[in-house]
Specification:
It contains 10 helices and 8 strands. It is of the alpha+beta class and about 325 residues long.
Length: about 325
């Protein structure tokens, strides 16, 4: 593919299967992957210590392995795993590299829970086969991904001798399509959550407005007395606006504290990574204050427009 398709920069065979890895008296179930050296460039995966696989390992089907951070932690703790020996199906492999941490995928899969060995070693010693399960490729640029997909499809149809009226006996998946589908799902979820939040804000705002209207009615005589001693309409309006903003901001602060607390509980209980952005917290707090201003304006305006004489007579 790399030789014949100008839109592809790297390609690597991949074989995968779950395996039990043993080191000393410890063992750990992980994902064993048979890959080529180009897999590092395709996945842009850095090596924290040691080295990655090279062509000599492929040619000789060497019994060497590069392990992820999770595997290293489970089998070696805080010790350096480089040059240590691990066993897969009683076959010894020398650890030549430790991968840098990548964390979880969007589906919650731990990318660091893996052992990578030469794909030729995987074929000959673990799977006893001559074929590969899949091939991962990297396009020369993001703009040429679609072109690469089309060229790969044509090349595989030619190599597999598939006629024009026959369907493909292979699948070519474009991760851009998967990413776009994930983004579409995220956008739908954002719209749904935004709708729920909007309804909550509307209900809360109406509640604030009703409370302030009741407050204006109950304090009509107080408003009249203030106006009689020199308070102007804008002073009365400012007073009730401040009260509405304080009420809304207090509710917003309580909501922020509950949100942060529930996120921490979820992180500890379900082991889900959570991110609390101070900028978003600040925007949420300011937005709650804005809700107080918006829904408190009408009651404040009504209070400011009261006739002082009528207000003093109010019982």
């Amino acid at each position: 593919m790399v030789r014949e398709l100008p839109s592809i920069s790297f390609a690597s065979p991949v074989l995968r299967r779950p395996e039990q890895v043993v080191a000393g008296n410890l063992n750990w179930g992980t994902l064993a992957q048979g890959v080529a050296p180009e897999f590092q460039q395709i996945r842009d995966w850095q090596v924290a210590d040691g080295r990655f696989l090279h062509e000599g390992d492929m040619d000789s089907a060497a019994k060497v392995a590069v392990i992820g951070e999770t595997v290293a932690r489970q089998l070696f703790g805080n010790d350096n795993p480089i040059d240590a020996v691990i066993r897969i199906r009683n076959i010894p492999f020398r650890v030549v590299g430790l991968l840098a941490a990548k964390g979880q995928t969007g589906q919650g899969t731990d990318q660091d829970d893996t052992v990578m060995i030469p794909y030729t070693t995987m074929q000959k010693r673990l799977m006893r086969t001559t074929w590969v399960q899949s091939i991962v490729v990297k396009a020369v640029s993001a703009e040429r991904v679609q072109e690469a997909q089309e060229q790969i499809t044509l090349l595989l149809r030619q190599r597999h001798r598939i006629g024009q009226d026959r369907e493909d006996d292979f699948n070519v998946r474009n991760l851009s399509d998967i990413a776009e589908a994930a983004q579409t799902t995220a956008r739908v979820m954002a719209v749904l959550l935004g709708s729920v939040a909007s309804i909550s804000l509307l209900v809360g705002g109406i509640g604030i407005m009703n409370i302030m209207l009741v407050s204006v009615t109950e304090r009509t005589r107080e408003i009249g007395i203030r106006m009689a001693v020199g308070a102007r309409g804008r002073d009365i309006m400012l007073q009730f606006l401040v009260e509405a903003v304080v009420m809304a901001a207090t509710g917003g602060l309580i909501g922020i504290l509950l949100g942060i607390g529930s996120s921490e509980v979820l992180k500890e209980w379900a082991q889900w990574p959570t991110l609390i952005d101070p900028t978003i917290v600040a925007v949420a707090f300011l937005f709650s204050g804005a809700v107080g201003v918006f829904f408190g304006f009408y009651p404040a305006k009504k209070a400011a427009n009261l006739d002082p004489i009528e207000a003093l007579r109010y019982e």
